[in-house]
Amino acid sequence: MKVALLSESPADEAALRELVGAVLRRPVEFVAPGYRARGWPNVAQVMPAVLRHLHFNTATDALVVVVDADDSVVHSVEHDRPGYFHPHCRMCRLRAVYRQTTKRFPAVNGRDRVLRAVGVAVPAIEAWYLCGRDETVTEAAWLAGNEAGRPPYTRAELKQRVYGTDRPSLALEIERALAEVSRHRADTRRLEHEFPGFAALAADLRSGHREPAQEML
Fold this sequence. Notes:
Blueprint lengths: L1 E5 L3 H15 L4 E3 L8 H18 L4 E7 L21 H13 L12 E7 L3 H6 L8 H9 L7 H9 L6 H12 L7 H6 L1 H12 L10
Parallel strand pairs: 1-2, 1-3, 3-4
Helix pairs in contact: 1-7, 2-3
């Protein structure tokens, strides 16, 4: 399977290569997306160009897109209702970018369109890295703390727990990211259970997600 990755940094991409392989449990060939993004707004901005490049110029099977939630609205089951869209939910927004960009793509290279797999790390990808090592860090804990007005940790604190500093170098980010995700290479079920934003990504990958026909109109 040929997969392209689009995320906020090279460190995220290094970790995602391991996690995508762990989810699929089969050989994966990673394809350059043609464009790089740095940070959340830029991911959404370059995604249409990435999709066009992959669709018309490559034989890529799927595009994996992962961003941090930061302080945005967290995706919920309610958001998955047909026709529902929350403008402040990053998963809803990325899925909408995919739909709007690909809805009129002609069939190329024996496929209708590049499949999409979207994940959102709540509140940041460092929370995924801590899964299985720090019992206090889960998506549910983040939601409950924010609803009570007492966030259980900050994004800077998550970085401190993973890297030993809240201002890591890129080399340190990659080193620690790969070390942390190694716990999930054989089994991603715990990560999926504790982080629905990752479970959505895994479900897309396993199902070879295609948008329902009515949503592509």
